[in-house]
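Consider a concrete sample entry:
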Amino acid sequence: MSTLAVKIINRSSNPLPSYATAASAGMDIRADLKEPIQLGVGERKLIPTGLFIELPIGYEAQVRPRSGLALKQGITCLNAPGTIDADYRGELGIILINHSNEVQVIQPGDRIAQLVVQSVVTCNWESVSELTDSARGQGGFGHTGIK
Protein backbone atom coordinates (compact mmCIF):
# COMPACT_ATOMS: atom_id res chain seq x y z
CA MET A 1 0.00 0.00 0.00
CA SER A 2 1.41 3.40 -0.94
CA THR A 3 0.91 6.72 0.80
CA LEU A 4 0.41 10.25 -0.53
CA ALA A 5 1.01 13.57 1.23
CA VAL A 6 -2.12 15.76 1.02
CA LYS A 7 -2.36 19.26 2.49
CA ILE A 8 -5.39 19.77 4.75
CA ILE A 9 -6.91 22.57 6.81
CA ASN A 10 -9.22 21.46 9.62
CA ARG A 11 -11.50 24.28 10.85
CA SER A 12 -13.72 21.87 12.76
CA SER A 13 -13.31 20.58 16.30
CA ASN A 14 -13.25 17.02 14.92
CA PRO A 15 -10.10 14.95 14.38
CA LEU A 16 -8.60 14.72 10.90
CA PRO A 17 -10.15 12.10 8.62
CA SER A 18 -8.68 8.71 9.45
CA TYR A 19 -8.75 5.07 8.44
CA ALA A 20 -10.67 2.83 10.88
CA THR A 21 -8.36 -0.14 10.21
CA ALA A 22 -5.02 -0.70 8.52
CA ALA A 23 -6.78 -2.20 5.47
CA SER A 24 -9.53 0.44 5.14
CA ALA A 25 -9.80 2.10 1.71
CA GLY A 26 -11.80 5.08 2.96
CA MET A 27 -11.25 7.63 5.71
CA ASP A 28 -14.17 8.59 7.93
CA ILE A 29 -15.45 12.16 7.46
CA ARG A 30 -17.33 13.84 10.33
CA ALA A 31 -20.10 16.43 10.48
CA ASP A 32 -18.97 19.90 11.56
CA LEU A 33 -22.15 21.05 13.29
CA LYS A 34 -22.75 23.40 16.21
CA GLU A 35 -25.92 21.51 17.14
CA PRO A 36 -27.80 18.41 15.94
CA ILE A 37 -29.81 18.74 12.74
CA GLN A 38 -32.84 16.80 11.64
CA LEU A 39 -33.06 15.15 8.27
CA GLY A 40 -36.71 14.62 7.37
CA VAL A 41 -38.06 11.70 5.36
CA GLY A 42 -36.78 12.11 1.78
CA GLU A 43 -34.97 15.31 2.73
CA ARG A 44 -31.46 16.15 1.58
CA LYS A 45 -29.02 18.59 3.16
CA LEU A 46 -25.47 19.75 2.59
CA ILE A 47 -23.53 18.91 5.74
CA PRO A 48 -20.37 20.93 6.44
CA THR A 49 -17.14 19.19 7.45
CA GLY A 50 -14.82 22.12 8.23
CA LEU A 51 -12.22 20.46 5.99
CA PHE A 52 -10.30 22.00 3.09
CA ILE A 53 -7.81 19.95 1.06
CA GLU A 54 -5.20 20.43 -1.65
CA LEU A 55 -4.83 17.26 -3.67
CA PRO A 56 -1.83 16.87 -5.95
CA ILE A 57 -2.59 17.14 -9.67
CA GLY A 58 -3.42 13.65 -10.98
CA TYR A 59 -5.55 12.69 -7.96
CA GLU A 60 -9.18 12.99 -6.92
CA ALA A 61 -11.02 12.32 -3.68
CA GLN A 62 -14.25 10.34 -3.85
CA VAL A 63 -16.97 10.89 -1.25
CA ARG A 64 -18.77 7.63 -0.56
CA PRO A 65 -21.58 6.58 1.78
CA ARG A 66 -20.94 4.77 5.05
CA SER A 67 -22.60 1.35 4.95
CA GLY A 68 -23.57 1.36 8.63
CA LEU A 69 -25.33 4.73 8.33
CA ALA A 70 -27.20 3.49 5.26
CA LEU A 71 -28.27 0.21 6.86
CA LYS A 72 -29.12 1.46 10.35
CA GLN A 73 -30.60 4.89 9.55
CA GLY A 74 -31.35 4.87 5.83
CA ILE A 75 -28.98 7.81 5.26
CA THR A 76 -26.69 7.89 2.24
CA CYS A 77 -24.73 10.31 0.08
CA LEU A 78 -26.92 11.60 -2.71
CA ASN A 79 -24.27 11.87 -5.43
CA ALA A 80 -22.20 8.82 -4.65
CA PRO A 81 -19.44 8.77 -5.36
CA GLY A 82 -18.98 12.53 -5.31
CA THR A 83 -15.75 13.71 -6.89
CA ILE A 84 -13.46 16.32 -5.39
CA ASP A 85 -11.08 17.57 -8.06
CA ALA A 86 -7.44 18.41 -7.41
CA ASP A 87 -8.03 22.12 -8.09
CA TYR A 88 -11.00 22.52 -5.66
CA ARG A 89 -10.11 24.55 -2.56
CA GLY A 90 -13.49 25.10 -0.90
CA GLU A 91 -14.88 23.37 2.17
CA LEU A 92 -15.77 19.72 1.71
CA GLY A 93 -19.54 19.40 2.00
CA ILE A 94 -21.39 16.10 2.12
CA ILE A 95 -24.85 15.85 0.53
CA LEU A 96 -26.89 13.46 2.66
CA ILE A 97 -30.39 12.14 2.00
CA ASN A 98 -32.73 10.30 4.34
CA HIS A 99 -34.27 7.27 2.64
CA SER A 100 -35.83 5.95 5.85
CA ASN A 101 -39.47 6.30 6.89
CA GLU A 102 -38.72 8.53 9.87
CA VAL A 103 -36.84 11.70 10.74
CA GLN A 104 -33.14 11.07 11.39
CA VAL A 105 -30.80 13.21 13.48
CA ILE A 106 -27.20 14.04 12.58
CA GLN A 107 -25.13 14.87 15.65
CA PRO A 108 -22.04 17.10 15.72
CA GLY A 109 -19.01 14.90 15.04
CA ASP A 110 -21.02 12.01 13.54
CA ARG A 111 -19.17 10.00 10.90
CA ILE A 112 -21.24 10.79 7.80
CA ALA A 113 -19.19 9.62 4.81
CA GLN A 114 -15.95 8.08 3.63
CA LEU A 115 -13.24 9.75 1.60
CA VAL A 116 -11.20 7.65 -0.85
CA VAL A 117 -8.22 9.21 -2.66
CA GLN A 118 -7.52 7.79 -6.11
CA SER A 119 -5.17 8.52 -8.97
CA VAL A 120 -6.81 9.84 -12.12
CA VAL A 121 -6.09 8.78 -15.68
CA THR A 122 -6.97 11.35 -18.32
CA CYS A 123 -7.79 10.32 -21.86
CA ASN A 124 -7.31 11.72 -25.33
CA TRP A 125 -10.25 10.88 -27.57
CA GLU A 126 -9.42 9.16 -30.84
CA SER A 127 -12.23 9.69 -33.34
CA VAL A 128 -12.83 6.59 -35.49
CA SER A 129 -15.55 5.44 -37.89
CA GLU A 130 -16.09 2.06 -36.20
CA LEU A 131 -15.15 0.13 -33.07
CA THR A 132 -13.56 -3.29 -32.70
CA ASP A 133 -16.24 -5.95 -32.26
CA SER A 134 -16.51 -7.88 -28.98
CA ALA A 135 -18.40 -10.95 -27.75
CA ARG A 136 -20.85 -8.69 -25.93
CA GLY A 137 -21.32 -6.24 -28.77
CA GLN A 138 -24.08 -3.71 -28.09
CA GLY A 139 -25.85 -5.77 -25.45
CA GLY A 140 -26.38 -3.93 -22.18
CA PHE A 141 -28.78 -3.38 -19.28
CA GLY A 142 -29.09 -7.01 -18.22
CA HIS A 143 -28.06 -8.44 -21.57
CA THR A 144 -25.75 -11.04 -19.99
CA GLY A 145 -28.61 -12.46 -17.92
CA ILE A 146 -28.77 -13.80 -14.38
CA LYS A 147 -26.40 -16.59 -13.39
Remarks:
- Residues 7-119 form a domain with the Deoxyuridine 5'-Triphosphate Nucleotidohydrolase; Chain A fold (CATH 2.70.40.10).
